[in-house]
Amino acid sequence: MKQYIVRRVGYSLLSLFLLSLTIFLFVRVTGDPVSLLVEPGASPDDIETMRRQLGLDQPLWVQYGHFVASFVTGDLGLSFYYRTPVLELYFQRLPNSLLLAGVAMALSLLIGIPSGILAAVRVDGFWDSAGKIFSLLGLSLPQFWVGLVLILFFSVYLGWLPSSGSGSVAHLLMPAFTLGWYFAAAHMRLTRSSMLDVLGSEYIKLARLKGLPEALVIGKHALKNALIPVITLAGINLVVMINVAVVVETVFAWPGIGRLLYEGITFRDFPVVQGVVVIGGAMIVLVNLMVDILYALIDPRIRLES
Amino acid sequence: MSSEPLLSLENLSAHYVSQQGTRVVRAVDDVTLSLKAGGTLGIVGESGSGKSTLALTILRLLPPAARIVSGRMMFEGENLLDKSDTEMRQVRGKRIAMILQDPMASLNPLFTIGDQVGEPLRVHDGASRATAWQRAVALLKSVRIASPETRVSQFPHEMSGGMRQRIVGAIGISCEPRLLIADEPTTSLDLTIQAQYLSLLRELQREHGLALIFITHNLGIVAKMCDQLAVMYAGKVVEQGPVSQIFSTPVHPYTKALLGSIPRMTDNRDHLTAIEGQPPDLASLPPGCSFAARCPMAFGRCRDEAPPEFAVGEGRTARCWLAVPNADAKAAMERSNVA
Q1: Which of A12, A39, B93, B332 is the most exposed, fewest CB within 10 Å of its CB?
Q2: Looking at this predicted complex, what is its ipTM?
């Protein structure tokens, strides 16, 4: 078990290293940030000074080493654009992202779990087909398109909801739905397949043999077992929602972490992009690591494999 | 009531139909059986012969692809096929209970033993949570589980296989049913625990006046446990009657082959006897007797015409042309015995 955990932690650190290296290099491919930071017509000297101030005159490996070294001490550097620590920016935006992700997650579970159960109980029936269409659309329609159609309909034609910004429940509805639909589809499909698995089990057969009403068979004996994988996935998805709701936050101008990342990319604000991506990546890797270890604790077969 | 059998199945057929309706699998085909109160009926046959489907047919819990196409199922004077789903639910677990094959899989891993054992009482008898819990303790005690007071609040993974199977047995008898159907209840237990479990079932049967249907492929268990036997082949009951008579003078060649394939300690043969060939595809049965292709005594008529059930003695029937109660056929039987 100890060996298994050590190995898992090793893999996690390796993924984080590869992620940080990739984002470090990719962000530098987007162009020179200095040209966006200096006034038009600035002298070559000014530009050079700016570049030195930002540490961009150093060789790449020195820059990378500096980035990793400060990341390990919990320092993500200063934003080129805002001139404030990246971590401070991240925590400023975090509550908004948590709010959006929380509501979107609640929506996705409220839609995904009941419709997944219905689809499994009435497999191949009308609700199963309707659910398939709903989840196919949810997984395949691009979020920016869903967002724009919602804005067109509810803001432009009906005038019911504000098209962008934050501050009220009305502001939250469309972005939460846009973000939640995709995950509702994922949660629905997993609930359906896991429910079908459970419904075929011997203990469900025994529950029916006992003469339990169908509501008790489904609602008590099947549901609790079927939800275990769904809750696991939802936990991982919540972290994803918090950190990578870039498209939705941009379409609705929601001031969260996704939008911070988008701004970072537009302004070539390297520390912001690197910081947000690596924090998000670290959270996702950490949650996966925890799930792996928990599964190993629960299921002895995984432990033995290692 | 006492002269009437507890359960009688009359020409019962249940078929699996493929989604397009093109393939019909006759899993239970024209089965007529009866069982008196307190009696024990063994149903034997190879895998796929329709034994388990027959059990689920009696409880009307067939998978969605299967349906009961004809026949009657009289239980305590009522036709179970006339009952609504709700009425049928009130029969399951209360008047007819069933024990499944796999004790490891038939308990829900997320609920306590007490919850699962007491559940039928709460549903059928409206027992309160506390009463059901107390009854669960008593039931665990009656299936010989040590320290039932602590076991009752534990979860299935904390029990051994033998304990779990006894717990499943406790669930079966919780509402004091009239009939208990046990589908290969000991297959996954090791031998010493099998013997304990079987004697426990017999005790429970005596105490509660239960009728038992024992589905198994183990003729040894039938010999020990049952007074009536039905042999199934390809969805049909090919021979039935009192166990002792069938064991001493089997009529149907399939029954003879089954009895011949039991390995015995006294044998000095160095090989096991198997029945040649494969059971037929239940979706495309031959026109004649389903066993004809594997039968060492088959003759012309067997391949053309399916034999009906012939009475071959007091309370005995067999589906075999060799059992025709007239002289011609007797002669045919003798000829084929010589050949």
Answers
A1: A39
A2: 0.84
